[in-house]
Known about the structure:
Elements: E1 3-4, E2 11-19, E3 25-32, E4 36-38, E5 47-49, E6 56-64, E7 67-68, E8 78-84, E9 87-91, E10 96-99, E11 105-108, E12 122-126, E13 132-139
Parallel strand pairs: 2-11
Antiparallel strand pairs: 1-2, 2-3, 4-5, 6-13, 7-12, 8-11, 8-13, 9-10, 9-12
Amino acid sequence: MALKTTPEDPTALFWHLWADADGVTHQSQCRFGNFELKSFAPPAKDLWTKRLAATPEDITILVLQPGTLKWHRNPKPQWIIPLSGTWFVESMDGTRVEMGPGMASFGEDQLAKPDKNGNVGHLSGVVGEEPCVLMLIQLTDPPRKDAACRID
């Protein structure tokens, strides 16, 4: 997650993998907004804070070996954060995004429908020859259709 911090406008970016009304997946670069400057861990000074309206269900660490996975949907809406290495996600519209440590993706392609070649959801895999370690935070929230960048 790229982070720009100024007193006026803290900005944190993430990628959102989502399905449109026709079941085709896309990726949009989105911005967390509406930060509040408030106490998070007193007596530490105030911090810019953004609470997400989401209910976590599970946190998993995955170690992906070099190579590419088959086309698939995320099992549940989930945040995916690379801890080391680099991975890529290619959506059905052909958009390919590579992500390394400090970046984040919200995988919400559960409502994707197979295309004429039988591809559905997304294609993903490791970039390079080193494994990629990912942290997944799965949510209980249901997926939303046609909702680019809408996370709360």
